[in-house]
Amino acid sequence: DIQMTQSPSSLSASVGDRVTITCQASQDITNYLNWYQQKPGKAPKLLIYDASNLETGVPSRFSGSGSGTDFTLIVSSLQPEDIATYYCQQYDNLPFTFGPGTKVDIK
Amino acid sequence: QLQLQESGPGVVKPSETLSLTCSVSGGSISNSLYYWGWIRQPPGKGLEWIGTIYYSGSTDYNPSLKSRVTMSVDTSKNQFSLGLTSVTVTDTAMYYCATVWGKYTPGWFDPWGQGTLVVVSS
User: Fold this and answer.
1) Do A34 and A48 contact (CB within 8 A), yes or no?
2) Rg of chain A over all Cα atoms, to the nearest angstrom
3) What is the arithmetic mean of pLDDT over A84-99?
4) Residues in a beta bridge with B33
5) How many Cβ pairs within 8 Å bridge chains A and B?
6) What does the DSSP 8-state code read for residue B2?
7) Taking Cα atoms as reference points, which of A71, A17, A44 lies closest to residue B114?
């Protein structure tokens, strides 16, 4: 199985801050990497697919980049509604695997 | 717009079989663009893919669960189902169904159902 790691595991930032979350795969997954946002008590929601493509309706302050084994999710200006846990997920090989998540809250 | 809704018992006894159904609305489960998947999340923990099914009945399962998992699709009811046998307390989780799709191969989950909590307890 492809192992996904994320850092940090949690972070606290102020409204308006730029937030960066990284995701690393245990082997080359090209760009087969997706990002999800899970707000407390809710189902995950797709934010970005194929490493850098913003899902329709997702605010443009979210962006993704990377290829191979290293990927980044950036929130350019953190908003109160962005409080959530963020997960990366690879689909280069079955089984699909998720990162352990990064919990983001407001300072 | 696709909407998915999980249903099934909230409590299952150890060693018994967990059975869940996902009802799809806003589109046809037979749409060739989509696959259908199950993902679970133990309380306070991360996400685990369980398996994916196509309307034809073709399946892929997580090897860690493969010996206990069965997925099926009922096109007449626009539903797909999950069965997990011989459950233990470690199968206690929120179970989500989701549409699985992608450009060339199914790869991302969107949208998700709201989830249903299944507790394994005697």
Assistant:
1) yes
2) 13
3) 98
4) none
5) 60
6) -
7) A44
Token pair for A31: 């760009």
Condensed to tens digits (0 to 9), the pLDDT of residues A7-56 reads 999 999 999 999 999 999 999 999 999 999 999 999 999 999 999 999 99
Asked if A57 is an interface residue toward chain B (Cβ–Cβ < 8 A), one would say: no
State whether A95 and B64 contact (CB < 8 Å). Answer: yes
Which residue reads 């990927």 in tokens?
Answer: A71
Dist CA A98 CA A36 (whole Å) = 10
DSSP string, B53-118: E-TTS-EEE-TTTTTTEEEEEETTTTEEEEEE-S--GGG-EEEEEEEEE-SSS--EEEEE---EEE
Comparing CB atoms, the residue among A46, A55, A96 nearest residue B49 is A96
Burial class (CB in 10 A: 0-12, 13-18, 19+), A94: middle
How far is Cα A56 from Cα B119, in angstroms, rounded to an integer?
35
Cβ(A90)–Cβ(A2) under 8 Å? Answer: yes
Q: Mind listing the pLDDT tens digit for each residue in A47-80?
A: 999 999 999 999 999 999 999 999 999 999 999 9
Encoded tokens for A20:
């960066």
Would an 8 Å CB–CB cutoff place B58 in contact with chain A?
A: no
The minimum CA-CA distance between B59 and chain A, rounded to whole Å, is 12
CA distance A61 to A13: 15
The pLDDT score that the predictor gives to residue B103 is 83
Lowest mean pLDDT among A47-51, A80-84, B102-106: B102-106
Q: Are strands A102-106 and A10-13 parallel, antiparallel or unpaired?
A: parallel
A83 vs A39, A44, B37, B42, CA distance in Å? 7, 13, 26, 20
